[in-house]
Write a structure and sequence with these properties.
alpha+beta, 2 domains, binds FE2/S2 (inorganic) cluster
Length: 173
């Protein structure tokens, strides 16, 4: 997992912040918080749900969480920056992680990474202009025998070959 930040606010302050994000997104965030009954003990799960819904944690969303849970923004920021599952910058609709661990590396991961980079036009740590893909690398996905391994969202794809890797990305919109 991983981590984020923002500031607490009065009702009028939060309303102003909500104008900075899409109204639909604000409604999604409100619904998520309400689903957890505004429970401070559900903070991490609320942030996970917002991350899953929006693909990142906009600071305006964190301000809404702070206001509705009555949790200081400093604590929310600490939580959001601590866990790797959270992103404070916008991410693509699909997250690609290519394993560059030793087992995958010796089985051709660098070539797989090169193919993916060329296909979607971004480097690890970047998101494409269409907000379709975010690309990253990891050190081990825990299934070394399947190397080289790539993870797209929750799906793990193993025994990759550079020649067939591009085709695996075609089904994503
Ligand atoms: S080194 Fe790639 S899955 Fe372990």
């Amino acid at each position: 997992m991983r981590s984020p930040d923002i500031q607490g606010s009065s009702q009028s302050g939060a309303s102003m912040k909500r104008t900075e994000i899409e109204i639909m997104d604000a409604e999604k965030v409100e619904r998520i918080i309400d689903n957890h009954r505004c429970e401070p003990g559900s903070l991490i799960q609320i942030l996970l749900d917002i991350q899953a819904e929006l693909h990142w944690l906009p600071k305006e969303a964190l301000a809404m969480v702070s206001e509705k849970l009555h949790v200081p923004m400093s604590r929310i920021q600490h939580t959001a920056t601590f866990y790797k599952a959270f992103s404070l910058v916008p991410k693509g609709r699909h997250e690609i992680n290519i394993c560059m661990g030793t087992a995958c590396h010796v089985r051709g991961a660098p070539r797989v990474l090169e193919v993916v980079q060329n296909l979607i036009g971004i480097q690890p740590g970047e998101t494409d202009a269409e907000m379709k893909f975010s690309l990253g690398t990891v050190n081990c996905l825990g299934c070394c025998a399947l190397g080289p391994v790539m993870e797209i969202d929750a799906e793990r794809l193993g025994k990759l070959a550079p020649a067939t890797t591009a085709g695996l990305l075609k089904g994503y919109d």
